[in-house]
Write a structure and sequence with these properties.
Strand content: 25-35%
Helix content: 25-40%
Largest sheet: 7 strands, mixed
Shape: globular
Distance between the termini: 61 Å
Radius of gyration: 21 Å
Length: about 375
C-alpha cells in the first residue's frame, strides 16, 4: 500500500499546518488555494496556548517572534475624544505572540513548502467519492484522485458547499461586519492599539510592525445581500457606516480616499458556522469551514490546534478515516464551541450598540489596571 494522499483545500492557517503534520506521519499532502498568492495584509492574530507549542514543534516560533507586532497597550477613545488607557493587553504572555495574519500564513506555507505540493490559483470544482477514495475535478488543473479531502478553505468554504450543502444552511450572519486594510504609514502611537468608538461602530488603528493597519467593526443588517460580495459595494458599505461621524484619527485624514484607493481591503460578515457533523465519507472540514466565530483573534490558534488534532487522529488510524474524523471532532468541537459562546461578550466590548453601552464599557475600562 502506497502513502495515503490528502487534498487540503486552503492555504491560510489550518491548511498548511495540517499538511505539515500529515507529511511527517507518512501522508502525501497537496494544498490547493484559490488565490494566486498569499495576501500581503491582514489583521493581527494571536498564536497562544497550545498553538504556541505547535509552532515551537514546527520550528517556526522564532520567525513568529521576529514578526510579532509588539503592541502592549490598548487605548479607547470615547465619542468626546477623551482617551482611556493605555491598558495592558491580556496577551501575548510568555512565548505567545501576536502577528499579522498574512505573516502567519506565509511562515506556515514556507514551513511546508518542501513536504507538500502547493497549487495556487485553483480550486475544487467537483468531488465524486466512493469507499476507496475521491475523484476531484479542479477549475483549472486536470482531475486527480485522492484518498481524503479536507476543506480548510474558510467561512465561505467551497468544499463544504459541494460535500455538505449550500452555505446558507450552515452559516449564520450575526449582524456585525468587519473590514481591514493597511494604511501604508506608521501609526501615530507605535506602542498602543487605539480604538475609536461611536454607537454600533469601532475603528481601530493597530501599529502592527511599523505600518499601521485599520480595522472597522460595525453593526448592520443581520442577513447580508448578494451585493456584499462586490468590492465596490463593500467600500460603499463601510463609507456609509462611518462617513456620518468626524473621526479624529491621525492616520486617516481622508477616510473616503483611503478606502477607495485600498487595494487590499478585506471585508466580510461576522458569522457562525454550525454543522451537525464535520465529516462526510472521506471529506472533513477544518478551521472556519467547520466552525467560527471569534472576535478576539482566537480563530488562528484554534485553526492550528484543530489541524494538529486532525493530523494526530489520521496518523493513529491511517486506514480508517471515519474513526479518525470522529475522534478529531470529539476532541476539537468542545474547544471551538467555547470560543463561539464568547461572541456576545466580544461584541459588547468592541462595538457597544448604544451610548449607554459605550459609557458602561468605558467606565469599566477606566477601572482596569494600566
Amino acid at each position: 500500500m502506497g502513502q495515503p494522499t490528502v487534498l487540503v483545500c486552503g492555504a491560510g492557517i489550518a491548511g498548511p499546518t495540517l499538511a505539515f503534520w500529515l507529511a511527517r506521519s507518512g501522508f502525501l499532502p497537496t494544498v490547493v488555494e484559490r488565490a494566486s498568492g498569499l495576501r500581503s495584509s491582514g489583521n493581527p492574530v494571536d498564536v497562544h496556548g497550545a498553538a504556541t507549542g505547535i509552532a515551537r514543534s514546527m520550528g517556526i516560533l522564532p520567525r513568529l517572534q521576529a514578526a510579532a507586532t509588539r503592541a502592549p497597550g490598548l487605548t479607547f477613545v470615547a465619542p468626546s475624544g477623551r482617551r482611556i488607557g493605555p491598558m495592558r493587553l491580556g496577551r501575548p504572555r510568555g512565548e505567545d505572540v501576536e502577528v499579522p495574519r498574512s505573516d502567519l500564513a506565509a511562515i506556515l506555507c514556507e514551513a511546508v513548502r518542501d513536504d507538500a505540493e502547493l497549487l495556487f490559483g485553483d480550486s475544487v470544482a467537483a468531488l465524486d467519492g466512493d469507499e476507496a477514495g475521491i475523484n476531484v475535478s479542479f477549475e483549472h488543473a486536470p482531475p486527480r484522485r485522492f484518498d481524503l479531502v479536507v476543506g480548510a478553505d474558510g467561512l465561505h468554504s467551497t468544499v463544504r458547499s459541494i460535500a455538505f450543502g449550500p452555505e446558507d444552511a450552515f452559516v449564520r450572519p450575526l449582524g456585525l461586519y468587519i473590514a481591514t486594510l493597511s494604511l501604508g504609514r506608521p501609526a501615530a502611537d507605535p506602542d498602543s492599539v487605539v480604538m475609536y468608538n461611536q454607537p454600533g461602530l469601532s475603528l481601530t488603528v493597530h501599529p502592527v510592525s511599523g505600518t499601521a493597519g485599520a480595522g472597522f467593526i460595525f453593526r448592520g443588517p443581520r442577513h447580508p445581500g448578494p451585493a456584499f460580495s462586490d468590492s465596490g459595494a463593500q467600500r460603499r458599505i463601510v463609507l456609509g457606516a462611518y462617513a456620518g461621524y468626524d473621526w479624529p484619527v491621525p492616520e486617516l485624514p481622508d477616510l473616503r480616499q483611503q478606502l477607495e484607493s485600498a487595494g487590499d481591503l478585506y471585508f466580510d460578515a461576522v458569522s457562525q458556522v454550525r454543522l451537525a457533523s464535520w465529516s462526510r465519507g472521506r471529506v472533513a472540514l477544518l478551521g472556519d469551514a467547520a466552525s467560527c466565530v471569534s472576535l478576539f483573534g482566537d480563530g488562528s490558534s484554534l485553526a492550528m490546534i484543530g489541524a494538529a488534532t486532525l493530523a494526530q487522529e489520521l496518523a493513529a488510524a491511517p486506514g480508517d478515516p471515519g474513526t479518525a474524523f470522529r475522534r478529531y471532532e470529539a476532541r476539537h468541537r468542545k474547544l471551538a464551541a467555547s470560543r463561539q459562546r464568547g461572541y456576545r461578550l466580544g461584541a459588547r466590548l468592541l462595538v457597544p450598540a448604544s451610548r449607554r453601552g459605550l459609557a458602561v464599557r468605558n467606565l469599566i475600562a477606566r477601572l482596569l489596571p494600566g
